[in-house]
Amino acid sequence: MKKILLLSILTLILVACGGAKNTGRIPEAIIGANNSISTKESSSRYGKAIKAQTNIPEIDSEETTSTEEIKKEIIAYAKSFEGTRYKFGGTTKSGMDCSGLICVAFKKKDIDLPRISRDIATKGILISFKDIEPGDLVFFKTSRRNTINHVGLVVEAKRGEVKFIHSTTRAGVIISSLSENYWKKAFVQVRRVI
Q1: Structural domain of 88
Q2: Is residue 115 among the annotated active site residues?
């Protein structure tokens, strides 16, 4: 009986670990899709087919846009606001703040994110800095309060150089580098929502 219970637990762990892989689709928790359950077959490392339940509906790959294309469109739309002045609570070309820029850019692809940086920092998955890629979000603590209060969208990640677009109180919407001392010191984490 103990062996069956142990085998069942190990099977659940293997299935759960396989469910965390990037499927190339936008997570439902981010886009607010329905919670239909589908069954997918995947191969374990031992060559046996495992059936796992997922909360991602089956989607015809011809009808969907690839994750990379979605990220590129979000980045391009965010860049269209470059030069926009800073405005606390703003979400338009007449002025926007950092989280407003992120929300508007992702909303362009029907991805709803919270309106405040520290709340956005609870969405998606935490990413190691070495795995950072365009489309990820970078978070900062720029005030004396020990809480996340700034967010940017990674637009380029090459050879250790990470550039991100964000809205600053001094310069509005600009592209900065994580190699700049100010941002390097204020950096907290990277998250991936798509």
Answers
A1: 67-192
A2: no
Neighbours of 73 (CB within 10 A): 15
Are residues 53 and 72 part of one domain?
A: no
Segments in the chain forming alpha helices (H): 2-19, 28-31, 67-79, 98-107, 117-120, 181-186
Which pTM value belongs to this model? 0.68
Residue 27 has pLDDT above 80, yes or no: no
User: What's the CATH code of the domain at 180?
Assistant: 3.90.1720.10
Q: How many domains does the chain fold into? A: 2
**Which entry of 150, 157, 173, 193 is annotated as an active-site residue?**
150
- 59 catalytic? Reply is no
The answer to whether the beta carbons of residues 84 and 97 sit under 8 Å apart is no
Q: Give the pLDDT confidence of 46-95 residue by residue, as tens digits.
A: 333 333 333 444 444 444 569 999 999 999 999 999 999 999 999 999 99
Mean pLDDT of all residues in the chain? 77
Compute the distance between CA of residue 108 and CA of residue 153 in angstroms, rounded to an integer. 14
